[in-house]
Amino acid sequence: MKAYERLLSYVKVFTPSSEETGTSPSTQYQFDLARLLVQELKELGVKDADVDEHCYVYGHIPATRGYESRQKLGFIAHMDTVSDFCDHPVTPVITPNYDGKDLALGTSGRVLSPKMFPHLSTLKGRTLITSDGTTILGADDKAGIAEIMTIIEHLNDNTIPHGPLCIAFTPDEEIGMGPAHFDIKKFGADFAYTLDGDTEGEIQYENFNAAKAVVEFTGVNVHPGSSKNTMVNAALVAMEFNSMLPSADTPRDTEDYEGFFHLYSIKGDVSHATLEYIIRDHDAASFDIRKKTIEHITKILNEKWGKGTVSLTITEQYRNMKEIIDTCMELIEHATVACKECNIPPLITPIRGGTDGAQLSFMGLPCPNLGTGGHAYHGPYEHITVEGMDIAVDVGLKIIELFYKYPFI
To answer: Cα 378–383–384 angle (5° rounding)?
Structure first.
């Protein structure tokens, strides 16, 4: 099967994760895809494929004869999707020989346009896969799963000698919980790649340092007609807090290695208000300064409005995997050479976000990220090409070949 054919099947399985349930997996229907994948792995000859109680799928491919003692290489993708634009079944739409221009997404009223996504003009002549514009597509990260499955199928022809290979598909990546119950020992790899990136040829081993900040404001609510020097309006103090942050340090105004404060939730009234932020920066020192900045603003406002008016909770989320991958740069070198040998320019770019691989790297499994060929994730404009997926498969196969042809020292 071609990778895209598998993708068309997987996206029809409903798998959004949820931050609301507090369970693992966060949604039981992720098991629907997990069980399907276990069966498919077994059909491809992965005899020990199974899914555990937390919805993690594991499988192992024995080494080619004579390669049994080589280091173990793994490939990982995630089964869940975001919950946004996911309230009814996905209807994938195939557009052969895409003309690189505006494309109406079904009858949704949405148009996939080069004005919004300039890279679309480079996809001219390819076979484009989208949703009908009313849902996400789900290529994030079912494209990665489809590509790994296709890699396994190619390996069955025994033309690429390899050492032990390890496969895993995880739940709940989209809510930051993908590695929460990942069994490093059961997986068994010494090194791995996640297939969870964008453009084919993308190679990523730098991601944000990340934290979540919840700021709560407690006001003093009295009748506005007699509130002189008494009322403390929590909603106004919240507005004051946000105004004290650097106004240009937002996602809209930053790119590449530039960090930001992102206010993603605001609610409240006179008595109580809450602001929720995510704090991001690639540089560890700058990241610490951002956390100290938000702590300092909290201190200043409590001095102004009274102790206890503002309370701050900062929760660390993940760290920049670069400090781990720097110790095993052969992973990046192999991926770079693989792209070149597949006639695709290697795109070494920082991730303006995080992946399972970031947390897994700090758990002892160095794990950079590779592109799958997809674009515009997490919304109804999500799209991918058949050709991009084929290239991602070729790159994966070439990495396996290089990993065992030129083992790490």
So the answer is: 125
